[in-house]
């Protein structure tokens, strides 16, 4: 019988922390872990992970509590608690009775007579087993909230680190694109160019220092959150009596760690007017009468500062984002040479992409990622991300409203995007290798 009990108890132990499960989850391969252990060992939800027991891929990262395992662990804990409460070491020295009443005010165990005495009558009391489980559930609820804070901060830290490491290169390339545009304009605009580039460097340097400080704050907050989460986990693993007596102010300290969460820097360069730029582009203006895309096709845009993507689902395939209402358009005219300029109205919508795409992709439904040069805008929460494709690069500019201009230089191997209303440069994709017919393209999504 003892052997069966030992086997039963072994099945209720987490292989990571070697303690009884707390808030157990069972992953797709069938192995179970404490949720806190799972979070700490596989914190990145977007990275492919493998079970530490069988090395099978973890197919998802959000799991429900295994209620059966949790109830079985509760039975074992309560049995252990009752064994202690009835032991000789837990008898009241005055009344020689078991101390089974927990006083929340003094965080001590008392016998029934002591708890109703004059000294303790006004205190908050409860049974030891109910008190322990109540505190453990409080801990689990606090841990869930704290982990969401940790995950949010960790994600922001990764985004901020990427921005910080690439910021100087981005500002430099932006400056080069501005020089290219001014080189095509009259020489008397030299002072405008000088002031424009000077402002770019000044803004770029200020944002760089903000990003550096932000990364440091987020890294420090990550360590504080992880340390607090680990402390809560260790408290949760304590035997019931130790949990009752040692609980202290851990919830207050956990709450204090979660205040003043560092927020990402708004890394965005001011849009500056380049006089005469739109007038020059208008010399190459072409008609852009767009036709609607394939019926029942689903164009979708998704992304954030870590990963961005754009794609098209062909007719008959399920849309991965059924809440989206999607539209795709392209021009009947194609380009194999020369310089061409057109404008597309995006209004104030969030999710769109426009530019040029290889004509063969439209005809043959080939991989979109290898056949387009686009400027895209996607909404993430209350913010927006502007990016270019091929190569995939984030553009730290204000959200464009109204008309977006597209200038294609086929022989020069470049595509330039401009904010028409402000006559400002959004970005320039250089060193493009055009070898096929190109066609103006536009897609947008509403949800």
Automatic annotation (TrEMBL):
Pfam families to which the protein is assigned, alphabetical? SPRY (PF00622), zf-C3HC4_4 (PF15227)
Specify whether Zinc is a keyword of the entry: yes
Highest taxon in the source lineage? Eukaryota
Q: Which residues form the RING-type domain?
A: 14-55
Q: Which residues form the B box-type domain?
A: 87-130
Decide whether keyword Zinc-finger is in the record. yes
Keywords tagged on the record: Metal-binding, Zinc, Zinc-finger
Please give the name of this protein.
Uncharacterized protein
**Organism encoding this protein:** Pipistrellus nathusii (Nathusius' pipistrelle)
Lineage per the UniProt record: Eukaryota, Metazoa, Chordata, Craniata, Vertebrata
